[in-house]
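Below is how a single chain appears once it has passed through the pipeline. First comes the sequence as given, then the structure the pipeline wrote out for it. We keep one example in the README because the format questions we get most often are answered faster by looking than by reading.
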Amino acid sequence: MTISGSGPRMLPTERMTPRRQLEMIDVMAQLGGADRGSLSGSAIATHMGLTRKTVSRAAGFLTQAGLTQPLQSSWALTEVGLSLARLRGTDSARARLLLRDHWKGIWFQQVAVRFLASGALDEREFANQLSAGIPGRPERAVYLVEWMTYALLIERDEQGQVSLPGAQRPSDGPPPPGPGPQSLLDPLFSAPVAQISALPDDQFLALMGAYRTVFSSLTPRNAEQSAG
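Resulting structure:
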């Protein structure tokens, strides 16, 4: 599922951190229920200990981002917004992946691809690119950087450098060489660690036992070759 990048660009409010904005989505899921009932700004504000104006300003970005929708003087979660809230309570990794896929093609993801394709940038410099031509306090663009990091659209290191995730980075080098002759150990060494770790216990133990047998059978031969 994706969301288009059309419409005026809007940054998150500086009145609420991204963490609190995510909590607002959780509150709306709790109060609105499975039917995604509409909620007044006052009801959300009272539950969160905020002002109605703060809730309204947060809802502007969340609406453009496809997570909430306005209904006269109230708001309701979209289907994606409700799914995000549910996943956040059970599987945070899947929640972030959902948001990543939902925001594919949105304007700030396009900005990331444009300005980070050639390499990492300082997060403040990247925030300036995000806020170019958009009025508002600088914190708003910084908060969008945090949102994008949460949604796995960008990566941020300890030095405050942001970059595209590895899968999105363009490759300037030559294509990798074709597969060479396989050895007996190739199936183990070429398998991703996550794939091996995800095996059921009985299959994992059986695999390790099989390769232990292989290593044991090769050891005497290697010792004889070294002695010769």
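The chain has eleven helices and six strands.

See the next section for the split statistics.
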